[in-house]
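U., I forgot to send this yesterday:
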Amino acid sequence: SRSLQSWFGFKRDRWEEFRERYEAELTDNTMPMQLLRNAWEEGTITLIYAARSEVENAATVLQQYLEREG
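Result:
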């Protein structure tokens, strides 16, 4: 969510809590996640992000979530 991204503000000391909160949001948003899962199963999807870090960003959390939760 936009409010979660604003709270995080790319502050490294908030990264772990951001991951937890973002994964909770993903779990709670079943319809959009089902669409992503369907696309994931059909083939390659591209996750785009605009963050300072290549590792600490919402796209990596989403990728790991999809890989884990399928």
